[in-house]
Amino acid sequence: MFIYFFNSSSIESHHFLSLYLLLSLPPESGVLRVPTRYILPPSQRPMLGSSSGTDTITLPVIDLSLLHDPLLRPCVIHEIEMACKGFGFFQIINHGISSSVVKDALDAATRFFDLPVDEKILLGSDNVHTPVRYGTSFNHSKDKVHYWRDFIKHYSHPLAKWIDLWPSNPPCYKEKVGKYAEATHLLHKQLIEAISESLGLERKYLEEEIEEGSQVMAVNCYPACPEPDIALGMPPHSDFGSLTILLQSSKGLQIMDCNNNWVSVPYIEGALIVQLGDQVEVMSNGIYKSVVHRVTVNKDFKRLSFASLHSLPLHKKISPAPQLVNEKKSAAYGEFSFNDFLEYISSNDITQQRFIDTLRKNNF
Questions:
Q1: 245: pLDDT strictly greater than 50
Q2: What SS3 class is residue 219?
Q3: What does the alpha-carbon distance between residue 185 and residue 355 come to, in Å, rounded to a whole number?
Q4: What does the alpha-carbon distance between residue 153 and residue 133 come to, in Å, rounded to a whole number?
Q5: Are residues 137 and 146 in contact, defined by beta-carbon separation less than 8 angstroms?
Q6: Residue 155 CB neighbours (<10 A)
Q7: Which residue in 54, 111, 49 sits closest to 299, CA to CA?
Q8: Distance from chain centroid for Cα 339
Q9: CB atoms within 10 A of CB 186
Q10: Which of 56, 127, 295, 302 is the 20 to 30 A CA-CA neighbour of 252?
Q11: Cα distance between residue 341 and residue 346, in whole Å
């Protein structure tokens, strides 16, 4: 369950409340200010509106349709290589997922988060292995500070195996989000082939593992926050899987650049964001790095996002590709599986130590 403590003086009491219920309280409850448990230490605050010298940085945007042109494909592969080396991140346009599928998915998510809290909370669970779970914050059982976020996560591939477990309300949810999940699964296969090719590996290097792999759809809602300069929607972290394909309704994502500066990712109508995960960092033997990112919140409006997290099968181990290990560069990481990551986050605060840091060898 999701514990938020309130009373009339300190906004503290023993109720299992989601962030949405907190924000639905009347003005006299005192939630016109961020409750104490959401306030970040000064060193971790987002410093919105400040100039860090990175505002003018150009982040990569790649036209994915050009991959299908044999003459242009090498140029696109090179663009992907440069983006992966420079940022572990890029945006894609002309990616093949129709605007109607995207719009329908966002509409279904809006309807879900607008449901009464007592209905959503029936899907609540502390168990990270639960295939469908509603929650709030990042990992509320471990978070020292809570994060300004409600979410529904569900396994999504193979769709027929999991969709009956998804929310039945709103009635359109399974159909609309299911179509988006299937489209992102196909897109992920196309992207992982291009990334493998950019590393000098066979295009089908991970074909079997990807087809049998896991897809977790994290549908996020970041409500309007009364004091966005002292809170975050999600803390700095990297994703565990191969790739994360992110759909966002508005600006809010920030990535950390090579100089450890936070860079805001611009919102591009119709674009999707591709983020490298820990599995690609390990597979590439450190040539590519998983991107550290966080989510800021906004005072004036809520933000929705779909993070489609793709991974090898639950118990399938990934290690540095043999072709990328040689006398000059030995294996820099130990192997791991999606299940290993789940076990780690069940008992550790990953805001204190990234999971991938536990895999690095001393010679790296």
A1: yes
A2: strand
A3: 24
A4: 5
A5: yes
A6: 20
A7: 49
A8: 17
A9: 11
A10: 127
A11: 9
| Extended beta strands in the chain, E state | 3-4, 15-16, 61-63, 89-93, 132-136, 150-155, 214-222, 234-237, 243-248, 253-256, 262-264, 272-276, 293-295, 303-311
Residue 105 contacts residue 179 (beta carbons within 8 Å) = yes
Enter the pTM of the model.
0.89
CATH classification of 41-358 is 2.60.120.330, yes or no?
Answer: yes
Tell me the percentage of the chain whose pLDDT exceeds 90: 65
Question: Alpha-carbon distance 238 to 210, whole Å?
Answer: 20
Mean pLDDT over residues 353-360, rounded? 86
CA distance 156 to 178: 8
DSSP 293: E
Listed by start position, the domains of the chain span 41-358
Q: Which helix (H) or strand (E) holds 117?
A: helix 117-120
d(CA 324, CA 148): 40
Dig out the tokens for 150 from the structure. Answer: 């409600």
φ, ψ for residue 157 (rounded to 5)? -140, 130
